[in-house]
Amino acid sequence: RGKKAFIAGVADDQGFGWAIAKCLAEAGCEISLGVWVPALNIFESSLRRGKFDANRKLSNGKLMEFSKIYPMDAVFDTLADVPKDILSNKRYAGNSKWTVAEVAESVKADSGNIDILVHSLANGPEVIKPLLETSRKGYLAALSASSYSLISLVQRFGPLMNKGGSVISLTYNASNRIIPGYGGGMSSAKAALESDTRVLAYEAGRKYGVRVNTISAGPLGSRAAKAIGFIDDMIRYSEENSPIQKGLSAEEVGAVATFLLSPLASGVTGHVMFVDNGLNAMGLAT
Ligand code: NAD
Predict the structure, then answer these.
(1) 9 C-beta closer than 6 A to ligand 1
(2) How far apart are CA 196 and CA 2, in angstroms?
């Protein structure tokens, strides 16, 4: 039987989440998505209008299908956490059951247990500000959307994961190294995400028998990355200075994600795996 995967953090066909979905679909998985509520309308209409069709083609000639698409906002755990102004916001008001706990309940009702959970989302409202100028609110918002969201997902989806299941997220080496420009507490959020990956690997490993890993990816010109502003410079720097001097495709990350999510990686958990053409190993720009 095909494995069931839930992927949180897809809103177009340009990011890592989409590439992971495609690679998992190639491997025969059944895929459902959690799409950020404010991005849901445009994602669904683009999908319907065929805007993603070129990127949906699988090697068997068929188009990748999603068994379900759920509205989701990973900043809220239960309905009781949602402030009134969000509930009445017109982009949210037309949708329901989009908090993490409610999405987990819907997934359980629609598909039963799942095998694979992918966290491919981040948000840092002050990402363009240096850490030295970041507000408390901006910092905590970055941690809430980009780090606690993983804990929340594992908390709520862990109980519906089959033993032997696997979780991955996406991180960035600004957690360990100074990357000027990756601000607003996003560097802190990635450091937390990597540390939490280890602790969650232990706790969810013992409790549910699932593995938890994270992929530290090189720069990709996704929608989120374009919001940071200097992504083209990062891509150029990486191409010039990595051991392997080439661009990094989202598919290369999708392939490693599929490996980590498969039984081939049954002995790997709590791991931060670099998929960055080796840039992390350099000690000096060349
Ligand atoms: P992306 O724009 O494709 O994905 C980010 C997604 O997060 C979007 O779909 C957005 O709608 C969603 N999102 C934001 N806030 C949310 C919330 N509160 N609830 C639910 N969804 C929310 O961009 P991407 O670059 O593919 O990002 C995916 C992951 O990869 C992120 O964790 C990012 O930090 C990481 N990453 C990206 C790069 C890069 O250069 N692009 C490098 C390393 C790691």
Answers:
(1) yes
(2) 29
Global ipTM:
0.99
**Is 29 domain-assigned?**
yes
Question: Does residue 286 lie within any of the structural domains?
Answer: no
Active site residues: 172, 182
Distance between CA atoms of 246 and 163, rounded to whole angstroms?
38
CATH number at residue 211: 3.40.50.720
Q: How far is the CA of 169 from the centre of ligand 1 (A)?
A: 10
Look at the chain and report how many structural domains it folds into.
1
| Residues 185 and 177: beta-carbon distance below 8 Å | no
The domain containing residue 213 runs over which residues?
4-281
Q: Is residue 16 part of a domain?
A: yes
Q: Per-10-residue mean pLDDT for the chain, 286 residues long?
A: 95 98 98 98 98 97 97 98 94 95 98 98 97 98 98 98 98 97 97 99 98 98 91 96 98 98 98 98 92
